[in-house]
Specification:
- It is a single chain.
- This protein is an alpha/beta fold and 485 residues long.
- The protein contains 19 helices and 17 strands.
- The strands form five sheets. It has a seven-stranded mixed sheet with strand order 2-10-9-8-7-3-4, sandwiched between helices. Strands 13-14-17-16 form a four-stranded antiparallel sheet, covered by helices on one side. It has a two-stranded parallel sheet with strand order 1-15.
- Helix 6 packs parallel to helix 8.
């Protein structure tokens, strides 16, 4: 038997055992068919793709439908009424309605605003939220930097920023403290509470019930849903956050460069844009230095929207509806639970753990994102850059670093405030210099994230890759410089 045949036989035996232990996995068989028809390039290229939190993968059928649409029609800039512009406007508004339908958001309550990505949606809220002295910006330790950055808008306008701490080892927010933070407001102020539905670092699912809790105390709520919505249903007929940020490429891969801000109409009316641009106004005058804002979503869509890519959003949402978001959720739950268990059981010959997993050790209230580090037998962290190098040899796509989530990283790596304040990041200092200066054992973690096209063979091959680190006592010194988050 050839080595290739032996490997194939081993993979088939492992999958048969997995299916026997997890009979519910067969109920997600529609995704196996989708993998064969629309993601065959993964298997033909022997790819193990586990970076869905970084970016989703597109199906072949999405490209075919989008390219056919472009080939068969002529589209013009929608800021006109000529035939080609009118067609672009028609598809743009149809896509907008489809987005609201997918998230079960009533058009009477919500507007869908197209942005370059989730970060663009968050920036729209941050720069226009009416912060003033006496107002509060409350956010959780567990947040992407695109949410953390809003504190600079708050600070510039005199508002106070406060973080709700998370607690190790689960890396969940200390819910016992949340009511205290939500009640620490006085008088009539604009107060904004921001948190992620799912951590892009640890995969922790934060309760959507916080939305109603914050509303009860007079807070507006900004929900970062970028890591959540690719594998979970966000039902805006049940939950009513004031602002929701998402990126479509994380949901279904294509197109990139398109995200959205879903905003409640009354919350949208609170925003005070600091400028105007082409497309966001009804009229502007130079001699009077006056302008009249466009109503609704148009006031927030700067310049010309990505009108050739936006029709692909409807195609992507149709794909998710066809295979079923609940089916995707069920599959990643079974696979993720298996991966979490097997990674946790990885041991060196002396019985010491070969991996440390950050966040929940079970699948309860967590999503399909697992952050970890591999360890030497003596407990030292294997340099994440070396992990990347070995992953490349196995054609495994992972992500390494702090994932633009410093708060959770600081807690996961037990970095104290005193350590950070005592070792200032100086001008011209490289990230490697800073890591050494404050004595960190690693420059970050490794992240495996599951999604639409993940199957058991991906995880089986991943565990074969991870097994290479068992009994590893040292790593080479010729590693590339670390890249900042």
């Amino acid at each position: 038997m050839s080595p290739a045949d032996a490997e194939l036989q081993s993979l088939r035996a492992a999958e048969a055992a997995f299916r026997s232990e997890h009979p519910g996995y067969s109920e997600t068989a529609a995704l196996d068919e989708l993998r064969r028809t629309d993601f065959a390039r993964l298997d033909s290229g022997r790819h193990v793709y586990l970076d869905y939190t970084g970016g989703g993968l597109y199906a072949d059928s999405q490209l075919s439908k989008h390219m056919a649409l472009l080939r068969e029609n002529v589209f013009g800039n929608p800021h006109s009424v000529n035939p080609t512009s009118a067609l672009s406007t028609e598809l743009l508004e149809r896509t907008r309605a489809r987005v609201l339908e997918f998230f079960r958001a009533s058009p009477e309550e919500y507007e869908a605003i197209f942005t370059p990505n989730a970060t663009g949606a968050l920036r729209l809220v941050g720069e226009a939220y009416p912060f003033h002295a006496g107002d509060h910006f409350l956010l959780t330790f567990d947040n992407h930097n695109s949410v953390n950055g809003i504190r600079e808008f708050a600070r510039a306008r005199g508002a106070e920023t406060t973080y709700v701490p998370s607690v190790a080892p689960e890396l969940r927010v200390d819910e016992s403290l949340l009511p205290r933070y939500l009640t620490e407001t006085l008088g009539d102020h604009h107060n904004l509470f921001a948190y992620p539905a799912q951590s892009n670092f640890s995969g922790v699912l934060h309760p959507l019930e916080w939305i109603e809790q914050a509303h009860a105390h007079g807070w507006d709520v900004l929900l970062d849903a970028a890591a959540y919505v690719p594998t979970n249903r966000l039902d805006l007929s049940r939950w009513h956050p004031d602002y929701v940020a998402a990126s479509f490429y994380k949901m279904f891969g294509w197109p990139t460069g398109v995200g959205c801000l879903l905003a409640r109409r009354d919350a949208l009316a609170k925003l005070e844009r600091p400028w105007f641009s082409g497309g966001t106004i009804v009229a502007a005058f130079v001699q009077r230095q006056y302008y009249q804002s466009a109503p609704g979503a148009a006031h927030f869509e700067d310049g010309t929207v990505n009108y050739l890519s936006l029709p692909a959003v409807e195609i992507g949402l149709d794909l998710l509806d066809r295979v079923g978001l609940e089916t995707i959720h069920a599959r990643v739950a079974v696979l993720g639970d298996w991966l979490l268990e097997n990674l946790g059981e990885l041991r060196h010959s002396d019985g010491s753990p070969a991996a440390i997993i950050y966040g929940p050790q079970s699948w309860q209230q967590r999503g399909a994102t697992i952050a970890f580090n591999l360890r030497h037998p003596d407990g030292r962290i294997v340099d994440e850059r070396y992990v990347d190098r070995i992953a490349h040899r196995h054609n495994v796509s992972l992500r390494t670093g702090c994932f633009c989530n410093p708060g959770t990283g600081e807690l996961a790596f037990t970095i104290s405030r005193e350590t950070l304040v005592g070792g200032e990041f100086g001008d011209g200092m490289a990230l490697d210099d800073y890591v050494r200066a404050i004595g960190l054992p690693s420059g970050g973690a490794v992240r495996a994230s599951l999604g639409l096209a993940t199957n058991f063979n991906d995880l089986n091959r991943f565990m074969r890759f991870a097994a290479e680190f068992v009994d590893l006592t040292d790593t080479p010194g010729d590693l590339p410089p670390r890249v900042a988050c």
